Every structure is written in C-alpha cells, then in structure tokens.
Predict the structure.
Amino acid sequence: MKRKGTRIQNEKRGHPRYMYSALFFLLIFAMTLSPVFGEEGSKGDDNSTKDGHVILRDKWGIEIVRLKITAAGHILDLRYRVIDPVKSFPVFDTKIKPVLIDEQTGRDLTIYTAPRIGGMRQKARRPESGRVYFILFSNPAGLVKEGNKVTLKIEDVKVEHILVEDSGSSVEKKDNSGG
C-alpha cells in the first residue's frame, strides 16, 4: 500500500501542469535578479515611434527599454523604466491592461496569465524612478518572431514599431556586428 501511495505522489509531482508552474516561478525569479542589458532607452527610427515614446513618457511616466522573445518563443518580455513614479503608478494597476499588437497580423497579445499565479507583470506599491520593471505577454504558437515589429497599447496611448529582439541578443553581440 505504501509503495502505491508513493508512486501516485511521484506521478503528481511530475505532471506537466506542476512543471509549467515551477518553470514560470523560476523564470520570474531569474528575471528579477538578472541585470538589464541594453542602452538607456529604445530610440525609434521614425517620427511615429518617437511621438509614441514621448507620449508614453509624458502620460505614463515610463520608457521602453527593450522587448525580447523568451521561454522558447512563447512569451514576449517587455522591460520598461520608470521615469516619473507618480505618473507611472496606474501602469501597475491590474485594471489597466496593456496589450501588444502584432503589426503583421493585427492580432492582440495579452499579458500572460499562469494558473495559480495570475498575470505575469511586476507590481509595485511605490514605483521607483530609474528602476526597470517587466510585463510578460503571451506569444501563442510563436506568432511574433525576432525582427518583427509590434505596437504597445496602454489605454489610449500607442507606441508603434517596437522591434522585437531575440533572447540571445546583447550589447556585446551588437558591438561585434558593428565592426
């Protein structure tokens, strides 16, 4: 009897649902500890992107640092820096639902929600100026690929043409490719 009970317990521990939950806990933990690679902010190539960035900074008090593919292409990791803690406070409210829009298909990508954990976005009671926070978005079937462009929509503010980086990209790679 005891042996059967142990076997059942071991099978439950190895169930994919539990493994996915554990994987996402580790992912979140690793992301909060990892340093943010990249430049001071994302610089747009055209006026519409620059305008969107300016509006994002003026209305919400944040600036986009980068957007990368992670979790084997199933999640998009958006990193943003708080510029004005007072203006940025509503961004941390779970009632406000940021959305990424794939510019090729027009499909909305929502915040990833893990079972038992909830929405995968960093929460802060008191946002700190200069600190980088994250929001994880679902990328079903790897719809968005490296090099694609997306639009970030937070209520009525849109930031267009955000370039999606590969998870392997870093400052060192960019420096080596330049010469």
